[in-house]
Amino acid sequence: MVAHLFIFDIDGTIASFGGITGRAFNRTFEQLYDRPGPWGKVLPHGRTDRVILRECFAVASVDGDFDAHFRMFIETYLRNLSESLQTASGARVLPGIRELFERLDSNPSAFLALGTGNVERAARVKLEHLGLNPFFPVGGFGDNADERKEAIADAVRNATLHYQRSFAPERSWVIGDTPYDIEAGQALGLRTLAVATGGLHTMDDLQRATPDVLLENLAETERVVRVTGLGR
Ligand SMILES: [Mg+2]
Question: pTM of the prediction?
Answer without folding.
Answer: 0.96
